[in-house]
Amino acid sequence: MIEGTIPESKREQRLKAARAQLEHAISLMRNLAYFSQIGIDPSNTNPGAVRKTCVIPQVIIESIQYYQEMAASKNISIELLNRWDQYKVIGNPDLLRQVFMNMADNAVKYANSGTRITFESRAQKRTGNLLVEITSVGTPIPIAERTKLFELGFRGSHARQKVASGTGLGLNICKTIIEGVHKGDITLESASNGTTKFIVRFPEYSKD
């Protein structure tokens, strides 16, 4: 395009393709950077052993801001519900940001145009856990693939059909960080109407 060899009629298509490749490269570099940190000390899933108070709404807002523009280009909105509930956990804010960035990236890629992606945190009285639920609407995920999605390198059939590029690293990293660093867990629910919900559980939390 800079050299003027791309016809006007094809410029928008080429720009979208270049943007998609750039977004994929950024996601890949971010995830590989995490793995390089783990490789320094495989027994320590918390690089630098950073332990701080993490304000969940703040971490989520910092994470999803990177994907607002990409979502808007697909007529998708990303919203943080009940943002004034200041839930807090002790952990590594950089790694938690990595988790929610991966979740936002994943949701925007596979959500249907014209839908809404929501992040919502709430206390579960029955278990005493803090839940962060990421909900989107797209293609239903087959039951047989739901647990495999967290395996290193695995990409579901719906992902391969909808987005050509992908590494299969993002959800595995989310699982590693939540389980290894924050002693919680992450699960997936997917309904037949295409509503998919990732649930991140923290066993310990506080609230102002």
Write a concise keyword list for the protein shown above.
alpha+beta; Heat Shock Protein 90; 3-stranded antiparallel beta sheet; 208 residues; single chain; 8 strands; 5-stranded mixed beta sheet; globular
Draw up the topology in text:
Layout: H1 8-40, E1 52-55, H2 56-64, H3 68-73, E2 77-80, E3 87-91, H4 93-110, E4 116-124, E5 129-137, H5 157-162, H6 170-180, E6 185-190, E7 195-202, E8 206-207
Parallel strand pairs: 2-4
Antiparallel strand pairs: 1-3, 3-8, 4-5, 5-7, 6-7
Helix-residue proportion: 25-40%
Cα distance, first to last residue? Answer: 53 Å
Give the CATH architecture: 2-Layer Sandwich
What is the top-level CATH class?
Answer: Alpha Beta
CATH topology: Heat Shock Protein 90
Low-confidence stretches: none
| String of helices and strands | HEHHEEHEEHHEEE
CATH homologous superfamily (4th level) name? Histidine kinase-like ATPase, C-terminal domain
Tally of separate helices: 6
User: What general form does the structure show?
Assistant: globular
Estimated structural class: alpha+beta
Number of strands: 8
Question: Could you walk me through the main structural features you see in this protein, from its secondary elements to its overall organization?
Answer:
By secondary structure, the protein is an alpha+beta fold. The protein has one domain: Histidine kinase-like ATPase, C-terminal domain (Heat Shock Protein 90, 2-Layer Sandwich). It contains six helices and eight strands, in the order αβααββαββααβββ. The strands form two sheets. Strands 2-4-5-7-6 form a five-stranded mixed beta sheet. A hairpin with a 4-residue loop joins β6 and β7. The chain is globular. The model has no long low-confidence stretch (mean pLDDT 82).
